[in-house]
Amino acid sequence: MNKALFFYYFIGIVSALGISFITYFLFNYYNLRLPTWFLCLFPICSVYMLFAQLLKYRSLHFYVDFSHWTQLLYSIATTGKTWSLNVELLVPGAINYLSVHFVPFIYAFAIPFRLWPYSETLIVSNFIVMISAAIPLYKLALTSHQNRRFALFVVVLLLWYPTFQYIVMYEFETLRFSIPIILWMLYFWQKKKMLGYYFFVLLAVLVREEVGLTIMMFGIYLVLIERQHRPGLITVLIGAGAFAVITQIVMPALRGGDGYQHIAMSSFSIFGSSIGEIIINTIKNPLLALETILHPIKLANVFMLFFPLLFIPFLAPAVLIAILANLGVGLLSKSITHISFMLFYISPSIPFIFYAFIKGWPRILAMIEAIIKDKFRISRFTNIHSSAMAAVLSALLIANIFFGPSPISLQFWFKNLRPAPFRTQDFHYSVYKVTDHHRTFNEFYNLIPEAAIVSAPQFLHPRLFKKRGALIFPQLKSFDTTMRAEYALFDKTNNGLKRESPAYLDQNDFNEVEKDTENWKLVKSADGYYLYENLKSDKRPLRSALP
Hints:
Strand order of the largest sheet: 2-1-3-5-4
Structural class: mainly alpha
Radius of gyration: 25 Å
């Protein structure tokens, strides 16, 4: 972390703690309470995430990953098959997306997508499902404390928790849906409604292959802490069994070709090339494991998961057993993105962080009361519950201002003030502006046949999901060289990207096509866009295995 960023975080953390402290004493001294109507404003205002996503899509600030999902849904909606040629072009043999990540839950989104096959359908569906996490969280908090105002307060914390907002606003993936599903699982467990509990346990392990590890750890918590041996062991078996069967049998069977390896294995290469090797070598080399885990930036990201909640989840530490597998995998990865508080990889941990917050709340109130009685001896300090709620909410909002992506954040208003060295993500208000340049793209899109393979920059891929396939320009052939681009479309303005972005293209990249006049012909150019046709691309059908 550079000095400027360290100083920024220091200022943000001190500000949040200081304002939280002041807020607590003001509310206590003047006997203030957070009005219910005021709390209700926050869920209403959280709808900004939907409009931000829609505008970001239309301003061409989504990237290549989003197109994999829309192409996958389009394939399910039209053929019933989980095929993505875009992924096949990157990873030969991986045309069945379930061999890359086991995400059968995606079929739920194929239903509305079949009726309205547009990217906006996925964006709206994503928002609805993610915001629905407020329902089980409200019920869980209400069941635990029998206080509707407190339950609403916890919902506000989730919806304005910086990590939750980053996850919702990250273009799309399915691991995020572990949040509402696991919250429902926890609610049914709290109510001891076992049919509902096991249903959501099973649903959780189908969100994505690694969620089984988190479910397994929750089962261990049930056995060791709550002494619920039978349901705990069943939960362990479901979680561990699902993870083993999916990663060792199902996904390899769905992958074409030989030598299957999980797409994330390269991130753990210092420990081995398979799950078994990684586990064994982690145990055999504890010093290497510690060195990998204790990376300052990784630990700082873990810190930022708890800081907006003022570390109250640590007052119910046993609950956090459930997050050890998810965070442990992220800490062992050589990629810091896998543990980033700004990305979706830590989604399965969030329900348990809030579950621990709910369980830790009575303990923080008791601690505050004990401190007041012992240190201050002031009888007027009696409004502990409301004051503590105001203090936590103020800390979370200040954290959002300094570190979040919302319209109240500093990075929304100041382009060069960013809480992380983002390379593709940007949350400045300028990325939500739709201009004539963005609208011009449609003219070029309509010139490309639906059956064509296109090579295009990452930020144009989300608009190309109905084409047969898309390569990332300047790549003009698949990695196994069996398929090549029939059209090349690029934008010389780079849509405002900075040079340090991995998606940025320069004239050397454009020359791959522009100077190859023997193979490429200019079809149309306007406003920085250039569309070329491959003169030597054969029009014969691709491999029969392809959709």
